[in-house]
Amino acid sequence: MRISTGLVLCTLFVASMLQPLVAQRTQQEPQPPISFSGVVNIAAAANGGKVIFVTSQLDEHWKSEYLIDGVVNKTNGWASSKAVFPQDIVIALKGDQPKLINKLVIDPTTPDSPLPGRWINEFELFVSDKYPTDRWKFVMHGAVRNEPRPQAFYFTPVEARFVLIRVLSNHGSDRYVSMGEIEIYEAIPAIGILDQLIARLEQLLRELKQYRDTVAQLGPILAEMPPDVLKKFDQIWRELIGSSGGQK
Fold first, then answer.
1. What is the SS3 string spanning 6-45?
2. Residues 6+ apart with CB under 8 A from 71
3. pTM of this prediction?
4. Sign of the CA dihedral 151, 32, 103, 131?
5. pLDDT confidence of 28, banded at 50, 70, 90?
6. What are the φ and ψ backbone dihedral angles of 22, each rounded to 5 degrees?
7. pLDDT digit string (tens) for 141-172?
8. What are the beta bridge partners of residue 182?
9. Burial of 97 (0-12, 13-18, 19+ CB in 10 A)
10. Rounded to whole angstroms, what are the CA distances from 232 to 93, 227, 228, 229?
11. 58 three-state secondary structure
């Protein structure tokens, strides 16, 4: 079966244009690398992940374990005892061998609304192949928007058995810092253009579902594609159709 080069390029372009609508990356978030991410959250407790250290915890209703329970709005999530920074959270991944990871997702959503400013803001990500350790490898610095939705952060693939999320600030509250969920995804090596396309579309489908849920919460205005993105897509689509039509 022959796959049109124009069709493949157009599909990849649509994926790259729609993803910013879903994730709305902050300035600190790097663009997705060439390798892709899996669809299994390897930090989830159901998949063997475990929170093995947290600097502080508000009370039994705000347990650190809630960060990896795969549930938002049914449990409180985690909150620190005070608005003192940094606050460290260490997650152990399943197994004795390091995992190659390249994507972190943070959902700041908790029963608190965004208005008090308690949700996580700036953070740093570190990894290690052993714990305890005083030699954490720095991966990235990022900032989470004060919005009730999952937010994805990509980075160059790195091996890890233990992941440290260092919370540096909230959005202004002097009471505590909180967040709802943490997800971590493995990197998938790109083997051939078709394999890349399949992995990319699977990832896009998952993020489109998250975007659909965001639209349901925040209103239909988010469903519209920005005019500049639509114009660019239309231009490239016409060029692809034109070039395909000229081939015999």
1. HHHHHHHHHHHHHHHHHHCCCCCCCCCCCCEEEEEECCCH
2. 181
3. 0.65
4. negative
5. very low
6. -80, -50
7. 999 999 999 999 999 999 999 999 999 999 99
8. 106
9. exposed
10. 41, 9, 6, 5
11. coil
Q: Which two tokens stand for residue 180?
A: 């709802």
Query: What residues does 154 pair with on adjacent strands?
Result: 103
Sheet containing strand 162-167, edge to edge, reads 50-54, 87-92, 162-167, 122-128, 137-143
CA quadruple 224, 226, 230, 233: dihedral sign: negative
Given the candidates 2.60.130.10, 2.60.210.10, 1.10.1040.10, 2.60.120.260, the CATH classification of the domain at 24-212 is 2.60.120.260
Q: Which amino acid is at 208?
A: L
Overall size of the chain counted in residues: 248
Burial 233-244 (b: 16+ CB within 10 A, else e): beebeeebeeee
- Read off the tokens for 160: 């890890």
Residue whose C-alpha is closest to residue 89's, from 104, 74, 103:
104
DSSP assigned state of 210: H
215 contact partners, CB below 8 Å, separation of at least 6: 222, 223
What are the structural domain ranges in the chain? Answer: 24-212
